[in-house]
């Protein structure tokens, strides 16, 4: 289980700190796929990256992260080395394009596990078995990354990043660059890796809520550095409570809707500047329900068992 | 015939072959393989398929950015490669691409960009009338005049820029617009505004080629659809008919894979690509989809598009 409490991660800029992650609190349960969705710039990738490596200009401000009760030294890049890849593994955005083009895939994997003092021979059997799980032939170990298609590379990256059976796998936009057919295959393989207990929990970051609906157990919606709503997938999709979640889901074209029958609606305006975010609720300038009470920041509170929303207008609080 | 009724763009037996390699080994890749379709006035045609299926190559050829290896593209019954005056051609046909930031000159402000269109294409319009028109089209695509006119490109969001490009096409009163993945870089909340702006271009009578890999969007926007697989059309026709009754195994697989908001994926039906058996199959004159098709056998010779019902064509020998 991973507990994140009051986490603040800022980016240093010349004009002041950009508050990319501002007081974020939630837990990732055992055996769970937690989906994180939101527009670009909402802090979803910052969240994933901060659990692995705080690269400048990213800086730790406050808050803590606990993995199975143990406090993670996320503010200490050297100490974190013990956890990276072994306990927490990250598939960053565009990971599939980061495979060394001059090395064969087998060689890349050998180098990688070597860095973590694991002999290739020890994990070779496991590697072959996992490749079979993602429907790749073991011949690819003798091939170069450019010989694989995008979907194949993404499946390979899944295998590589989970070779040491991490507790937590963070997948950042792993299906965004793929075609629908590969998107389905890759997403379901993540689910299979969780079901087969290869990884304990998965954080699946994406802007595509429709994919989350397919595979996530719970969904967290982020807006401008804050978690605004979190709850079971089915309930978030069928009965969104936060005005932002509502608008976001309304803006998605679902198969079976034509413009002549039903007009989709966008969300007017754009997200606030995170260097000087507005006082109170950060969504209030775009929110149709905003009133004076929104000048105070709404806390994320449990409105129904397991459902948390940060909005003054939501009944039941 | 009424004036303007017959205006359309038609693609006939369009083919593009790329060659790579040197003197000793020459590889040829057939990126587009005998594609036919037409887009009438006020019609949106969705061109869908996976990456590498040839969607963008077709778009580029229709914009005269890439010369076809065979076949022709007819704009109002005239071969576009016989229109020698490019200015005349581009005043009728325009393209919008995935990355709006690379479509504008970053050292000009937006009002200057609109003035340049007047200078190049609409010299006969007076300045004051032009300003009025600019305001009108900006309103039409949902942009606030004060928000955009005095800004540089880097000060605007991707959604605003894509809408500016549509406004530009509206101003030029184009006959044909090629829209190549215009929403894939945008967030869900701004994507809708761009799609709505595109629909306003359809209203003024433009023929629109809507290239996308997002099938839900294709259905939302379009009147007709062409499904491409490895450069060949596997299914085409009215979008209602293709979506309600997909016949080709590839189209079925694609529609099955759409992540929907009210129905979960069927987990037993996963289709993954394997190694390049396909190229070998293609050489043997068999169906290009043979390596992934659940129905395939060795009788699957290269199929031709056949009419299965009114306004619905399928290329599969099993049909």
Automatic annotation (TrEMBL), chain A:
Sequence ranges assigned to domain ABC transporter in this UniProt record: 4-249
Alphabetic keyword roster: ATP-binding, Nucleotide-binding, Transport
Alphabetized Pfam families for the sequence: ABC_tran (PF00005), oligo_HPY (PF08352)
Entries under InterPro entries matching the protein: AAA+_ATPase (IPR003593), ABC_transporter-like_ATP-bd (IPR003439), ABC_transporter-like_CS (IPR017871), Oligopep_ABC_C (IPR013563), P-loop_NTPase (IPR027417)
Molecular function GO labels: ATP binding; ATP hydrolysis activity
GO BP field: peptide transport
Stretches of the chain forming a coiled coil according to its record: none
CDD domains to which the protein is assigned, alphabetical: ABC_NikE_OppD_transporters
PROSITE patterns: ABC_TRANSPORTER_1, ABC_TRANSPORTER_2
NCBIfam families linked: oligo_HPY (TIGR01727)
Matches recorded under PANTHER family: MALTOSE ABC TRANSPORTER, ATP-BINDING PROTEIN, OLIGOPEPTIDE/DIPEPTIDE ABC TRANSPORTER, ATPASE SUBUNIT
Name of the protein this chain belongs to: Peptide/nickel transport system ATP-binding protein
Organism: Caldanaerobacter subterraneus
Classification of source organism: Bacteria, Bacillati, Bacillota, Clostridia, Thermoanaerobacterales
Automatic annotation (TrEMBL), chain B:
The keyword ATP-binding is annotated on this UniProt entry: yes
Any one Gene Ontology BP term: peptide transport
InterPro entries: AAA+_ATPase, ABC_transporter-like_ATP-bd, ABC_transporter-like_CS, Oligopep_ABC_C, P-loop_NTPase
Record-level Gene Ontology MF annotations: ATP binding; ATP hydrolysis activity
Family annotation (SMART domains): AAA
Keywords: ATP-binding, Nucleotide-binding, Transport
Signal peptide: none
Record-annotated ABC transporter domain positions: 9-255
CDD domains: ABC_NikE_OppD_transporters
Top-rank taxon, per record: Bacteria
Pfam families: ABC_tran, oligo_HPY
PANTHER family: ABC-TYPE DIPEPTIDE/OLIGOPEPTIDE TRANSPORT SYSTEM, ATPASE COMPONENT (PTHR43230), ABC-TYPE DIPEPTIDE_OLIGOPEPTIDE TRANSPORT SYSTEM, ATPASE COMPONENT (PTHR43230:SF3)
Record protein name field: Peptide/nickel transport system ATP-binding protein
Organism of origin: Caldanaerobacter subterraneus
